[in-house]
Design goal:
- The structure holds 2 protein chains of 2 kinds.
- Chain A folds into 2 domains: 62-196 and 380-450, Periplasmic binding protein-like II (D-Maltodextrin-Binding Protein, domain 2); 199-378 and 459-501, Periplasmic binding protein-like II (D-Maltodextrin-Binding Protein, domain 2, 3-Layer(aba) Sandwich).
- Chain A has 17 helices and 13 strands.
- Chain A has helices at 7-26, 92-108, 124-133, 146-151, 160-166, 175-180, 205-210, 231-240, 274-277, 298-312, 320-323, 393-404, 407-413, 423-431, 442-447, 463-479, 485-501, and strands at 62-63, 78-84, 112-119, 140-144, 195-204, 223-224, 227-228, 243-244, 260-266, 339-345, 363-366, 379-386, 416-417.
- In chain A, helix 2 links the parallel strand 2 and strand 3 (112-119).
- The longest helix of chain A has 20 residues, at 7-26.
- Chain A starts with 6 loop residues before the first helix and ends in a 5-residue tail after the last helix.
- Chain B is 68% helix and 0% strand.
- Chain B is flat.
- Classes of the chains: A alpha+beta, B mainly alpha.
């Protein structure tokens, strides 16, 4: 019944199949890979906030500026394109102030015309990469944290010569923060200090009160319940605050780990990686001083073992499944009211509580505990950078200075000013968001002196891939009990070495 | 021979028509016969799609092939170099590409039969004369496909949660402990298949159309001959539905090899647990947009294209002997 097909028929058949595959691939019923899911990061958080847990619906913002014809801008100035989206700045509430800032700046002078390009935070890095690849990159990017700077490291302009030529002074900013942005190739300065986010302890005062526990120390060196405020003290109090459905805490022999309803401690939104959640255990790098060899810093080994035991042995730190559960706000752990202590950065004030918290609670700040006799406060920082492809570096620098100096932009981004003289005003602006709660701002100010050097977000070869490996490590121990952590560290080191050895960008 | 005879007949017919109309043949040489005229207008009407395909799909296809022969890096575009077939050679030794293909094939083996079976089963259900409120059920089964995949996946994450998810709560009612659907390397594939079942509305609808096109007199004749429901299903429904089933199968195969969004959302784009959801498309995405190696990612894209093409051609070749076309083989 079935005759042999002729050669033309076979060719046509093959062609038909090809067209079928091509067209089906092009207009598939399932979304294509170029439409990735939104990051579930708290979108109110600044550039340095990791993309992890969902608490606030992601903003869908794409404002493409009206194309400006070649030549000067409407105010007669050189057009400088400002790309917003890598970090803060894409929330609906932030867009109007950004536009107002640009409008006021453009009206205030005739040398530079600032043109905004605001893109959705979840797509920003990919959009910027595409613009760089197609030769249509903007002039200024930001606010952007260390992570974003690492990704675009090869594209950033060294600002040091410009700063020197302009005799630019960093008013009210510590030199250590100025040096912090020597993050480019060969130590190039790729940003000027704009906002800082030291980390410290957030704790739920209502849960402490309920458990009959005193408030945590707010001064470095203060004792807690007559003992030094250190790792052991933190673990003890966290276990007291971990409670099962029968009301037994994790120090009780009757405690039921299968039915926990309240947890003692976590480092929420900390990048989901060993690199970030352990950063308050000490400072170091996964890259040895030779710039080639992978290493696992001692503080990471200590920290991850502590976290692993906290999850599986003592149960005061939640597992991944528990974090994603409704009990912990599907990722919004502290805001759920069921997490007592959280170690996080200043930017976390954005996300302490969801818009309609299940439980109203009072919260406070406390200093980080001593680990091995030392305090470490992992630091995040935001800046604005100029891309080296800019054709208008002088105009871009002029605009960048105005942006860094703007108190309005600091307020818009909820960013703690790097300039100490502006910090009090910022504290007051945040306090307004928490009526009835007294926040001790001396805590973050004090923690700035204990910043992690080298910073936990420091560059590594094949940065994004190395970071993903660290995230996979963290996910594994948070989802798997009984791991041989030493063996896992050995595997991680081998994995990182493989990633570091891969060919770099040409 | 037959085709030549057809052409002779057509020419004769044309000549006769021209003689009738009184127009000299030489003056109307450009005039098309009916079949050609239909074909001409057919091409005119599909030309927007053909032009679109050539420009918007064909152009990027060619561009991606050229890119696959370079080391084009997204954030360092000026340093692009021609590397010949190096990217394709490297594919063979890349463990992540191997893992991506393995994951994709594993998932395809589980998901395609389940999706095909479930969509046909649901189509049979909502086609049944005995089902009360058929239109309501048709709507309900189709409705999930209207929900954006990202949103529905976020809902599924909650549904499958070990601690507070409804599925494990339901399993718990029977005294059993539900698995960790999302974080277990063993259970993640059933979980993804389950999520996929929520979106079978399109396949169901196509199958339903196919079922309704089966002539009822065939069933009546079979019933008179004493055939039962199963025999009628096997001997009438399946053969007559076979072109529809083939279409669904090919599309299902292609979409399975394009699987991306659910895996991306479910695991924050990382391929957790332990690369168990590192589908080949996710690996491609990592290479292109995380690691900026667009040239290498393009090579992965072409590898995927060739694999899907081979599978599709094999499927169509197999189907030649298994699929029944009422109008004869075309």
């Amino acid at each position: 019944m079935y005759k042999q097909l002729s050669r033309p028929s076979k060719i046509m058949g093959l062609l038909g199949a090809t067209v079928l595959v091509v067209t089906a691939c092009a207009s598939s019923v399932t979304p294509s890979p170029t439409s990735p899911a939104p990051s579930t990061a708290p979108t109110a958080a600044p550039s340095t906030a990791p993309s992890t847990a969902p608490t606030v619906a992601p903003s869908i913002v794409n404002i493409t500026p009206a194309p400006i014809p070649a030549g000067p801008g409407p105010n007669g100035g050189t057009v400088v394109r400002w790309f917003i989206g890598l970090g803060a700045g894409t929330q609906p509430a932030q867009i109007a102030p950004e536009q107002a800032f640009a409008a006021a700046y453009n009206a205030s002078q005739k040398n530079v015309y600032l043109s905004l390009e605001i893109v959705d935070n979840t797509q920003a890095a990919n959009i910027l990469k595409t613009e760089v690849a197609s030769g249509t990159a903007p002039d200024i990017i930001g606010p952007v944290g260390v992570e974003g700077l690492n990704i675009f490291r090869d594209q950033l302009m060294d600002l040091a010569p410009t700063i020197s030529k302009d005799n630019y002074t960093f008013n009210g900013v510590d030199q250590s923060l100025v040096d912090f942005f020597k993050l480019g190739n060969n130590g190039a300065t790729v940003g000027v200090p704009f906002a800082v986010y030291p980390s410290f302890i957030y704790y739920n005062k209502a849960l402490f009160k309920e458990a009959g526990l005193p408030d945590l120390p707010t001064k470095v060196g203060e004792m807690y319940q007559g003992k030094p405020w250190d790792l052991d003290a933190l673990q003890q109090v966290a276990m007291k605050l971990t409670v099962d459905k029968n009301g037994n805490d994790a120090t009780s022999p009757k405690f039921d780990p299968a039915n926990i309803v309240q947890w003692g401690f976590d480092s929420q939104y900390e990048d989901n990686s060993a690199r970030a959640e352990d950063a308050w255990f000490g400072a170091g790098s996964f890259l040895a001083a030779d710039g080639k060899t992978a290493q696992i810093p001692d503080y990471v080994v200590q920290g991850e073992k502590w976290f692993n035991d906290g999850v599986w042995k003592y149960h005061f730190i939640p597992t991944q499944a528990q974090i994603a559960s409704a009990l912990l706000g599907a990722g919004g752990e502290f805001g759920s009211g069921n997490l007592a202590i959280n170690e996080s950065h200043t930017w976390f004030t954005c996300c302490v509580a969801p818009p309609k918290p299940a439980k109203q609670f009072n919260f406070g700040f406390a200093v980080n505990p001593l680990v091995n006799g030392k305090i470490t406060s992992p630091l995040h920082a935001d800046t604005f950078s100029i891309l080296k492809t800019t054709k208008v570096p002088d105009a871009a620098w002029t605009a960048l200075k105005a942006m860094v100096g703007s108190a309005d932009l600091l307020t818009t981004y909820g960013a703690m000013p790097a300039d100490k003289t502006k910090q009090d005003a910022w504290f007051k602006s945040i306090d307004k968001g928490f009526p009835g709660i007294t926040l001790d701002w001396s805590v973050p100010q004090a923690m700035l002196a204990y910043a992690d050097v080298p910073n936990h977000q420091s560059w590594m070869p094949n940065y994004a891939k190395a970071k993903a490996a660290l995230q996979a490590f963290q996910n594994k121990y948070r989802t798997t009990s009984g791991l041989d952590m030493d063996a896992e560290f050995a595997t991680l080191k081998t994995t990182l070495q493989g990633i570091f050895d891969e060919p770099q960008a040409p | 021979m037959k085709k030549r005879q057809d052409r002779v007949d057509e020419m004769s017919q044309s000549t006769v028509q021209q003689k009738i109309s009184g127009t000299p043949i030489g003056e109307r040489r450009w005039h098309m016969n009916k079949n050609r005229r239909e074909a001409f207008w057919g091409y005119v009407f599909v030309s927007p799609w053909i032009i679109g395909l050539a420009l918007l799909t064909g152009g990027p296809l060619i561009a991606s092939f050229i890119l696959s022969l370079t080391d084009f890096n997204l954030v360092n575009p000026e340093a692009v170099r021609f590397v010949g077939i190096d990217n394709y050679v490297n594919l063979a030794s890349d463990p992540l590409v191997r893992q991506g293909l393995l994951v994709t094939f594993k998932f395809a083996i589980i998901a395609i039969p389940v999706t095909m079976g479930a969509s046909l089963g649901v189509a049979l259900l909502v086609n049944s004369q005995r089902l009360f409120g058929r239109n309501i059920f048709r709507t309900l089964f189709y409705m999930p496909i209207q929900i954006p995949l990202v949103a529905s996946t976020l809902v599924w994450i909650g549904f499958l949660n070990t601690k507070t998810g409804w599925l494990n709560a339901i399993i718990g009612m029977f005294g059993l402990q539900g698995p960790d659907w999302i974080n277990s390397e063993a259970w993640i594939y059933p979980a993804l298949t389950l999520i996929g079942l929520w979106g079978i509305g399109n396949f169901m609808l196509i199958s339903l159309a196919g079922l309704q096109a089966v002539p009822t007199n065939l069933y009546e004749a079979a019933r008179i001959d004493g055939a039962g429901a199963w025999v009628m299903f096997r001997r009438i429904t399946i053969p007559l539905m076979s072109p529809i089933l083939l279409y669904n199968l090919v599309i299902c195969l292609i979409t399975t090899f394009q699987y991306f969004t659910v895996a991306y959302v479910l695991t924050n784009g990382r391929g957790d647990p332990n690369n168990a959801t590192l589908f080949i498309n996710l690996d491609l995405f990592h290479e292109a947009f995380r690691d900026n190696r667009m040239g290498y990612a393009a090579a992965i894209g072409w590898l995927l294209f060739v694999i899907v093409l081979i599978l599709t051609v094999a499927l169509l070749g197999f189907a030649r002997k298994r699929v029944y076309y009422a109008g004869g083989e075309s």
